Amino acid sequence: MAGDAGMLQALAETPLSVAMREGAWLYPIVEIVHIAGFAVLVGSVVLFDLRVLGWARTLPVAALGNHLLRWALASVLLVLPAGLLLFSAHPVELANNPAFILKLVLIALAGLNALAFHMLPYRSVAGWDRDHAAPPLARCGAALSILLWLGVISCGRLLAYL
Fold this sequence. Notes:
This protein has one domain. Helix content is 77%, strand content 0%. The protein contains 7 helices and no strands.
């Protein structure tokens, strides 16, 4: 653990980390990019999940998924580097923040849930692509996805308070 704390402290002392903390505009700009990226990511995921849960059944699930997945993946190109920059500003504090740790766990679970969804129920999407209810496993995965991403957002917001 001491090695990890040393690495985190070393990260906190890098010029970029110092600039993130001490610059008047860098941290807020990076935070805005992170939040905007998350809005696109979670918005895309939730819209798709709502379709799987039965909303707008006339929209083909596969076509909607292909469209929204591009937006979700593109948003990761904003969210991930911005999140790493935000972390670099306060690595020691964040590594010990329960909301941050829970946020990372929830992101990992959301990713595993998405992987399971694509490997299991989504393989049979042709049978429920339009005008049919998604199978129960797909609906459970969609509901879980929404809950996990709401948890991620909540933890991100709680970072300032814990």
